[in-house]
Structures are given as structure tokens and as C-alpha cells.
Amino acid sequence: MTALREGVPDGRYGRSADQRADRKLKIVGSVLGVALLGVVAWSGASYITGQDLSGRVISYEVVSDHEVKVHLEVVKGTDDTGVCTLRSQSEDATDVGRKDVTIDERSSQVDTEVTIRTTARATNAVLVGCGAAREN
After folding, report:
1. Core-most of 11, 47, 84, 123, by most CB within 10 Å?
2. Sequential pLDDT tens for the chain (136 residues)
3. Is the full-model pTM beyond 0.70?
4. For residue 131, what is the DSSP state?
């Protein structure tokens, strides 16, 4: 019996149409994958560099029934001016104090101590957020 062979001998007449299509798909997929990685990297970098100011509460101390001292750290551009909003809450989570702090020192990292006046005894001090100062 003679075995029937389907197709052409391997490597004799070049690549088949399926192999050429597979190679083109691999190339297109690789190019699109690299482009997607570039877009993700670009958007991540623009998000990180686009943040004007960042701040955090290092510590706070309830001094009295009407006062909280807050140690605030702000990272910003050297020439930037910003405003950070702090709030203080009572035991039942109602706001008892709020203060906007202007940060205009010519330094990239500013450590400052702020006093928040409260209407009742506070249990915490929270940074609401920091942003660029609005020009009037």
C-alpha cells in the first residue's frame, strides 16, 4: 500500500499561507502590545508628575477641649504655593474644627505645626486635602 501524503514536503516550497498569516499576526500583536505598554507608562508618569502638592499628618495632640496641635508635612515644588485643609472631629464623628493652611515657603518639603481651634473636645485631626493656591 502506498501512503498518500497531503500537502507539499516540509521546507521545499517556502512557508504556507497559514504560517505567513501567523507571523503577521504575531508582529501586529507585538506592536500593539508595545504601544499599549507605552500608553500605560505615559499616563502613569503624567498622573504622578501632575500632582501639585501632597501632604500628610505626622502627628496630632489634643491640647484642650478647644484646641488640637497638628504636625503637617507637605511636599511640593520649590516655587509652588498651596493650601491644605485640616479638620478635627469629636468622638461621635461630627466636625468640631476646620482650618485652611497656606504653604508658601520656598522649599520642596515643609514641616509645620498648626493649631486647630475646635468647638468641642476633638479626638483626631485629619488632612482633607492639599491643592494649589488660587490667585486672586
Report:
1. 84
2. 566 667 666 666 666 677 777 888 899 999 999 999 999 988 877 766 655 678 899 999 999 999 999 999 998 888 888 899 999 999 998 999 999 999 888 888 899 999 999 999 999 999 998 888 776 5
3. no
4. E
